[in-house]
Amino acid sequence: MNRLENKPMGFFGNNPVLGLALGLTTALAVTNSVTNALGMGVLTFILVILAAVLGAVVKMVTPEEMLIPVNLVITAFLAKLGELFVLAFASSLATSVGIFLPLLAVNSLVLYATGAFHKEGSFGTSIMKAFSSGAAYVVALLVVAFVRELLGTGGVNLLNPFNGAALFSFSVLSSEFTLGLFTQPMGALLTVALVAGLFQALSKAPEEKGGK
Amino acid sequence: MKNAKGYIVLLITVLLTGGTLFFAEGQLRPFIEEASSGEHQGVLVSLFDGDTTFTEVEFSDETGFIEKVFEAEGKGYAYILQNRGFSDDIIFGLAFDLDGNITGYEIVYLNDTQGYGSLMGEEDFKNSIVGKTSIDGIAVVSGVTVTSKAIIDAIDAAKVHYNEAMGIEDDGSGVVEEPQAPPLNFGDTMAIFRDNVSDTRKGIILDTVEEGGNVIYTVEAAGYAVIEQYPDAKRNIFAITIDPANQVIVGVEVIETNDTPGIGDKVSHEDFLAQFENLSYADESVEVDTISMATVSSVSVVNAVLAAILESN
């Protein structure tokens, strides 16, 4: 975990999904539409913040060698709690994302946010890290989903992920120019790779010039 | 001692989180059930005419095909059914009125092959279901066996539940259907008169019978099995009735099809053969539609017709 400790997450460099592949399975699955990406992104963001808060609390009383098991329990607890709330108050999101809602229990970003892997951080640092990594996760999901939906369907149709109400939509490509591949799992991998490359390029610090 | 503290923290964490989840689930269950019934509201309201109030009811089902059961106030019962189709799960709604008649069949999710399994979501199949009773049998659709059987098995599960709930005894007196032919999808158009028919594909006259002013030709023509050189492949055989004086094809009858069952044998479908009935060939640009996904078999019929016309000339 040296890499996680040494390089803090950011939007472009070390993006949790596109740079560190945290929560990648969910990201590949739910980015078939911007609506699903927004819903799961917001839910994951909330869980990440809660994970950071609970993780910081248990860290005060948990011996170091038991941090990972305790934080795994917290991650599963938060994922199940999140699932119950979504089933109760956002059933359209639950229907859209299906099995990937309970699979939040194995989302490595939530586990990371509990602080299981950065034992030295203070409460404030944990919350700040969770906030930035959660926000970067949402941004990555939205960018990937936007590209996939645009190329795969010719436009974007954004619904309120929590009640299914239409928010806005636009279409720029006629059906003969759309690429159905991008709505499929293969298109998800391709898009994630392309967007990850783009983010990496944007994050690259200018090389030092000069020499010996 | 340090280890003991860790295990105690883990135990307390498990107890606290488990207890919280138990409490939360109890509090949220009514909201989840309400949202769950609302999830299928769009389908449910389409199963009955007019405004209907639905109440989800408890049920037991050994088949696992019944996902939800709703009592439609003063109108009957509605079911959300699920079964595995050819390539994916199929989810659909079904409703019975108080007299045991099926009043509605609506697909919620169907992702089977376009042109085959997808036909089970279209009006023709829906119309074949709606109006039947809870003791009528429903036949599988030939050529779409897996998808149609999955749907019919789920309907049968709903019928069992409905009959029990309403005290109806299925004494076997209901209508039992023969397997249905799937609705036909037409594809490319093909001219009957063509110069480029290869020797392999040309129709061969086997027999000629004059009947009144008409001549009935028995013709064999190579279908998909022969052209693809399947082992023991045989040509398709048709009876083509021609009125040579008026240059009219009176009709085409399929005597024997030897192409892929469920695909090539679609040439026997009445909608396809109806194209040839009383079709004038005085104008040599006359065309017919081939059957989508059964083009080669369709062309064997066209070639047989052409051979009969040329023979009559």
Q: Could you characterize what this model shows?
A:
- The complex is a heterodimer of chains A (212) and B (313).
- Chain A is mostly helical.
- Chain A is built from eight helices and two strands; from the N terminus they run H-H-H-H-H-H-H-E-E-H.
- Chain A has helices spanning 2-6, 24-30, 34-61, 67-89, 91-97, 108-113, 123-153, 185-203, and strands at 155-159, 166-171.
- The relative contact order of chain A is 0.19.
- The mean pLDDT of chain A is 83.
- Chain B has 313 residues and is an alpha+beta fold.
- Chain B folds into two domains: 41-166; 186-312, no CATH class.
- Chain B is built from seven helices and twelve strands.
- In chain B, strand 1 (54-57) and strand 2 form a beta hairpin.
- The radius of gyration of chain B is 29 Å and the shape is elongated.
- The mean pLDDT of chain B is 86.
- Chain A binds chain B through residues 58, 61-63, 65-66, 69-70, 73-74, 76-77, 80-81, 84-85, 87-89, 91-92, 95, and chain B through 2-3, 5-7, 9-10, 13-14, 17-18, 20-21, 24-25, 28, 31-32, 35-36, 38-39.
- Taken as a percent bin, the fraction of beta residues of chain A is 5-15%
Written as H for each helix and E for each strand, in order along the chain, the element string of chain A is HHHHHHHEEH
Q: Note the quaternary state here.
A: heterodimer
| Main pleated-sheet profile of chain B | 5 strands, antiparallel
Helix tally of chain B equals 7
Low-confidence stretches of chain B are none
Question: Which stretches of chain A are low in confidence, meaning pLDDT under 50 for 5 or more residues running?
Answer: none
Rg on CA atoms of chain A, Å? 18 Å
Structural class of chain A: mainly alpha
Distance between the termini of chain A: 34 Å
Radius of gyration of chain B: 29 Å
Question: What is the rounded distance between the termini of chain B?
Answer: 106 Å
